[in-house]
Amino acid sequence: MEYAIEIENLTKRFDNFIAVNNVNFKVKKGDVFGFLGPNGSGKTTVIRMLMGLISPTSGTGKVLGYDISKESEKIRSKIGYMSQKFSLYDDLTVDENLDFYAGVYCVPKDKINKKKKEILEMADLVGKEDMITSNLSGGWKQRLALGCSIIHEPDILLLDEPTGGVDPIARRQFWDVIYDLSKKGVTILVTTHYMDEAEHCNSIGFLYYGNILSLDTPNCMKEKIIDGDIVEIKSSNTLKSIELLKLKNTVRDASVYGAGIHVMTEPNTDLNELKECLIQNHIQVISIKKVKPSLEDVFVFLVEKENRK
Amino acid sequence: MEHEIIISSLTKKFGDITAVDNLNIKIKENTIFGLVGPDGAGKTTTMRILLSLLTPDSGTAEIGGRDILKESEEIKQHIGYMPQRFSLYGDLTVLENLEFYAEIYQVPKKEKKEKIEDLLRFSNLTNHSYKLADQLSGGMKQKLALSCNLIHTPKYLLLDEPTIGVDPVARREFWKILFELKEGGTTIFVSTPYMDEAERCDEIGLMNNGKIVKTDTPANIINSFNKPIICVTSENNHLARDIALKEEYVTDSYLFGEELHIVVDDSDNAIKKLLKKFDTNYIKASINKISPSLEDVFVNIIKSEKRR
């Protein structure tokens, strides 16, 4: 099996602060790897080390077989990077932004036009070439930023929260493009706070205060990590229900989930008992059922388990 | 029930673009109203007009019985507003930020200390009060920004996409705070691109191209969706989607987390035909009927608007 990214015992300290602590993971060529974790967990620091922008304190990393400490120049020409703050020139047109990035990445002159046409089609920006970037809506800007980051046909794409603040339709369009790239063999590492996006990844690494807590496929994570049951309840008073449920000793945690509540209970907890507890307190129970844990449940479970330590 | 925020025939143009187009919204006292819509729908412009940061071309709005065009100064004393990029002073501590906002909002000295203590407790920041705002995590920054805008005990809270870039744990905590504020009598107007958050609102308005396409409770909006949706789980949802989209009885097909959702006219018929199609393409799949989620409804309404 060929790996596009291989990281071994990677550590980064800033003075006394350990931003990344002995992290290990591998990403297969052509895979989409999702990097999850709360704000400040070290995701961006790992990405910066992969790009050779900062050097690790210890440990090694290889990107496309090149050493991240010694051969970062070689790596950079093969990497595309898009950050949350799409680095586009707002006062340039769509076309001019693409030209600019083609220049930066030294795309051969005879290839530029063909490449630009491809990107405009892929990003659904045909006809918008002459629009000033600041006039584009969020979803378009985001796809333009992605287009700019792949104009030099990189083998690896690093995306740092690329879909923050983008609406559900634009997010779907964006992920369609990501898949097409992955099908063509581009390896993608993406960080996101959207758990539904994490479901689309081939594998996920869960980072928390610099440590990898879990590394697996989305399905395995949902099946293996939570050792209790998840019960979904819809009631007439969400807030009061949460307070009451938390007092029960079979309940480990209860929190807002969509329009209802997700309750994490000990295995094989009697649902009628939970229902009774709410009814006795004059709360109407609209529905109560055991559900498969979602990735969001897994995320919250891992964070809270870690916090209790 | 009385309406506390009433937006009437509000219009705002920027050059050729009509950002807000004859908008009408009524928000009941002591509820959470969610404004949901794609980028560029006009959500932020609407909020800015309510705050008198922008003047509408025509129409007006009332907040607590006061007209935004004539009584904006009085209104401001009762509004808390958290913009998308909230402004905290990174080089001030948590406590100093709260004190600064207390000054701006002219909170009486006698009340200030107690109010700040209350807010710190409320947002779980008591143990972090001497940290610089820059050193806080994203979720804590967001709670501090909210607290700063609650220092004058506003009756109305306007939140413009407050949970962007915040992780799921922090988002849950933030919403718990909003529920508590509502319980305490605050009327909340919040815009969000997250459909799971929209589902927690008492009422939502779906906004597109400056107009409200639909206003109702989340449950009613979901129930009003009249097309069947079927859900596919397979080992290759991408291929399955491409195949489904070629079928003439399929209206739309899109990925939904680990599932593939397909909008059809007749679900039984479609399930039968699709299972056969998938089988001939060597895709192992199971299909069942599902009731749509708010995100399904949103995607379908906005897409059908675009086709017009």
Layout of SSEs?
The complex is a heterodimer of chains A (309) and B (308).
Chain A (H helix, E strand, L loop, with lengths): L2 E12 L2 E12 L3 E5 L6 H8 L7 E6 L2 E2 L4 H5 L2 E4 L11 H11 L4 H14 L15 H12 L6 E5 L7 H16 L3 E5 L3 H4 L4 E6 L2 E6 L1 H7 L4 E7 L2 H9 L4 E7 L2 E6 L5 H10 L4 E7 L3 H14 L1
Parallel strand pairs in A: 3-8, 3-9, 6-7, 7-8
Antiparallel strand pairs in A: 1-2, 1-4, 4-5, 9-10, 11-13, 11-14, 12-13
Chain B lengths: L2 E12 L2 E12 L3 E5 L6 H8 L7 E6 L2 E2 L4 H5 L2 E4 L11 H11 L4 H14 L15 H11 L7 E5 L7 H16 L3 E5 L3 H4 L4 E6 L2 E6 L1 H6 L5 E6 L2 H9 L4 E7 L2 E6 L2 H14 L4 E6 L3 H14 L1
Parallel strand pairs in B: 3-8, 3-9, 6-7, 7-8
Antiparallel strand pairs in B: 1-2, 1-4, 4-5, 9-10, 11-13, 11-14, 12-13
Biggest sheet: strand arrangement of chain A = 6-7-8-3-9-10
Taken in chain order, the helices and strands of chain A follow as EEEHEEHEHHHEHEHEEHEHEEHEH
How far is the N terminus from the C terminus of chain B?
36 Å
As residue ranges, the low-confidence spans of chain B are none
Description:
The complex is a heterodimer of chains A (309) and B (308). Chain A has 309 residues and is α/β, with parallel strands linked by helices. In chain A, 36% of the residues lie in helices and 29% in strands. Chain A contains eleven helices and 14 strands. Chain A has a six-stranded mixed β-sheet, sandwiched between helices. In chain A, strands 2-1-4-5 form a four-stranded antiparallel β-sheet. In chain A, a hairpin with a 2-residue loop joins strand 9 and strand 10 (211-216). The longest helix of chain A is centred in the middle third of the chain and has 16 residues, at 168-183. In chain B, the strands form three sheets. A six-stranded mixed β-sheet of chain B has the order 6-7-8-3-9-10, sandwiched between helices. Chain B has a four-stranded antiparallel β-sheet with strand order 2-1-4-5. In chain B, strands 12-13-11-14 form a four-stranded antiparallel β-sheet, with helices on one face. Chain B is globular. The model of chain B has no long low-confidence stretch (mean pLDDT 90). At the A-B interface, helix 6, helix 9, strand 12 and helix 11 of A face helix 6, strand 12 and helix 11 of B.
